[in-house]
Amino acid sequence: MQLWQKIKQKIFFFFYGFLNKKEARVINKIDANASILHLIHILREQKIDRILVICDQNFEKQLYFSKLKENLQGAGMILTLYSEQVENPSVTLVEQCVHLFFSNSCQAILSIGGGSVIDLGKATKARALRPDKSLHKLKGLGKVNTSNKSLPLLITIPTTFTAGESSKTAWIIDHPNQAKYILNDNALQPNYVMHCAEYISIMPKRLIAATGLGTLTQAVEALLSTNNSQYIEQNAIEAISELLDKLEQEELFAKIDSETIVDLEKTNLAPKNQLIADLLNAAYQAGNASGRTLAGYVTAIANALAVYYDLPYSEVSAATLPLLIEQYLKHKPELFTNLSENISAEKILTTISSLQKKWELETNFPQINVVQIPDLIEFVNNDLRSIYSPPLYLSDEELGEILKALA
Description:
Strands 1-9-6-4-2-3 form a six-stranded parallel sheet, with helices on both faces. Strands 5-8-7 form a three-stranded mixed sheet. The radius of gyration is 20 Å and the shape is globular. It contains 17 helices and nine strands. It has a single domain (1-294), classed as Rossmann fold, CATH 3.40.50.1970. The longest helix has 20 residues, at 205-224. The model is unreliable at 257-269 (pLDDT under 50). By secondary structure, the chain is of the alpha/beta class.
């Protein structure tokens, strides 16, 4: 990495990571209905009545979404709905949302779904704040650069365990240029996060396990990053400890009624399941940490595989982290010696392996063309040189070994 890039990283981290401790405010009432009422109160208080709703296509079919929509419309809110199956948000999808936002005079963005849907909402806010700039010009660190950081209001409602609901970063794919880039700016941090255990309860068990591991990966990368602070370390350690403890508890999955998405009438999940609530809070803390540290090898590899093969972040990251930890232990074992009494490399590896086997999560991706591994290595290295902060740098040969192991 060139000296000027290192200096730029450290300056950005000092102002956006080290000094910035502002967090998204959490709406977390006794059940979904109480949370919706509080959300309506917030919207009325800020005189907002026109909302762009960006929703995961699967959740949009659920009774819970119908109730949310009915309550908002009953309170006089005018909703513009954008519902798509989003695996990796792209420039094209963002521009579609931006068009809906302006053509319907929206004042707020409500993102309901997993990390990809939430990133789509953040990128839409970036363009809404800076309609004079393309996404390409907004990519990178602190490029939104606007004094108006409040409107449009951004509210996130996670339906998986994703660290994205609380972070100020968004990852967007640019298919024509075969690129995936980061938007990282304080203006993109959600204003509010609404946690509803019921919304998680109707999602597939396999998805819950996969996204839980994806969130664990983000927290581990944040903890090992060279950009760190007491605030970041505390959030990352608490998130990792909670995820390692709760994700392996049988009760978490026993309380979820079906492998597939079911409607409200078919689920017997209690309105406030403490395990799910604890994991939602852990994901929130992971986002607080990862959004301030910049990223590492796992994210860079996941980005490369998303661009080349449209592979999902959660399963790729869960498959990549153990391979990366092995390299770290070989070169710098002290990284894991003084983390926390509840956290060790062995515990992380055991938890990931257990959940991968139990829920048949992918550890190999046949879509990866081994002939393209040199291109993937170049992609990852270019990403690392630009904004990332891993604890050490791997050789091309070592990086190639990881990619071959994933293929």
